[in-house]
Amino acid sequence: MMIQNRTIIVTGAGGGLGEGIARVCHREGANVVIADLRGEAAQVVVKSLGARALSLRCDVSKDTELQALVDETVKRFGRIDGLVNNAGINFVKPFLETTSEEWDRVVSVDLRAVFFLTQMVCRQMLRQTPRGGSIVNISSVHSYSVLPGSGPYDAAKWGVVGLGKSIAVELATEGIRVNSISPGLLNTQIWKDILAAAPDADACWAYWKSNIPIGRVIEPGEIGDLAAFLLSDHSKCITGSNIFADGGMTSQLVSKEPYEAKPLQGGLPPADSRGEG
Ligand SMILES: NC(=O)c1ccc[n+]([C@@H]2O[C@H](COP(=O)([O-])OP(=O)(O)OC[C@H]3O[C@@H](n4cnc5c(N)ncnc54)[C@H](O)[C@@H]3O)[C@@H](O)[C@H]2O)c1
Question: What integer is the mean pLDDT of 190-208?
Answer without folding.
Answer: 91
